[in-house]
Design a protein that fits this description.
single chain, mainly alpha, Arc Repressor Mutant, subunit A
Length: 247
Amino acid sequence: MIHRYRVLNGILALRQFTVADLARYSDVKDTTVRTVLAREARFVERAGTRSEGRRGGQSIQYRLRADAEQDLVDVLGELEELGKKVSPLVSDQEDPVILSLIAAEDVLLRQLPQASQADRAGLVELANSDYGAANLVRSDHHEAGTHRRVVELLLRLAVVEQTALEMAAVALPTVDIGARDWPVQATQVIRSEPMGGKELDALGRDLQELLQSWPQLSDRNLLPDLVTRVGGSWFGSAIFQAGRGAP
């Protein structure tokens, strides 16, 4: 969430820019900028190229679309409102660890389930970037430990889901992931690979352990959001069943 806000705010501020310009202004990696630009393409358009001074060096220039400015302002406003839900402790101290983990949670809990197959990999990369930023300061004081465990579990779930899509593309080329029987098919595909089946069982056990040790958090929606995300996954039934069987 925080990286997305920074990049979108940079688009509004700079109006015309290259990826490198926007990365410097937003203080994020070039790969994060490219991911956000791909997902938020409705706000920008290409505006030619710029010579970088080195032999053959040309960078694509982008600019804010005039007809998209108000929509961008509205989205930034929505993100600011979402940011107000962060606990006072986090807001006052601007804890970079928790902020990065919350950003990853926003992608994995809310954006990824609604994404198209084509956008899933980019969103997982974006969440990984936020998670990596949190790991630069390995400090689990206050509530960071629980947020970290949530993000780690959700990233593992996202990897299993992506693996199922890739395996199904080969084994079941005509499969419809919107079909009612897709969760059953996806589970069968994953369990056909021994490590895939073990990972589903491990996710169930780890989720059960996380829920049993759940502390009181400032974000009271995180627990129901986590349960809803896992339950809505193609592997929800298998994961919850594995969790119930955990000692």
